[in-house]
Amino acid sequence: MKNHRDSDKKTQLNIDDADRPANVQGVASGIKNIPSDYKEVNMEFNSIEKNIQCVASEIKNISSDDKQVNIETNSIEKNVQGATSATKNIHWDYNDDDDKQINMESSVIEKNVEDIASATTNIHSDNDENTLVNMEDGDILNYLAMIDNVDTEIQRQKQEQQNLLNTIAAEECMYRV
Predict the structure, then answer these.
(1) What is the pLDDT of residues 22-67, one digit of tens each?
(2) For tag attachment on the chain, is the N or C end more exposed, with fewer CB atoms within 10 Å?
(3) 119/102 Cα distance (integer angstroms)
């Protein structure tokens, strides 16, 4: 990440593709070219719960002397309905006396979002006119990238879970014949 100041002594925050970690692909909601004389910057991130319920991450209330800029990442709350890690119990009899039970757990979605806590920003004031916002260790950029990838992972795991259910249903029919 690069911090630049132009001739008007304003802060410009640029995030270039080359600055992204190698494992981050396609950050949809990047923060680019926000020039202003920042006096106060509040960035709040909702934690991603282990059960991926109500995932809605926002960057809020970036205030300046003369205006307020709100930048929101896309909320994926509507896309995670029924996508929590669940245990499915499937019972069938394929012999008269044999009752078989299959416990199937969908993969835990958080494998791709583990270790993502609410990101912390460090705000360093140059003087009364400029504040540089530094993102330590790329935490915020990585956080945004992971949020962008959560929906893809949820869809992949839902399809994987459905495929397993279809396989079990087919086996159930085979053993019932």
Answers:
(1) 434 433 444 444 444 443 343 333 333 333 333 334 444 444 444 4
(2) C
(3) 40
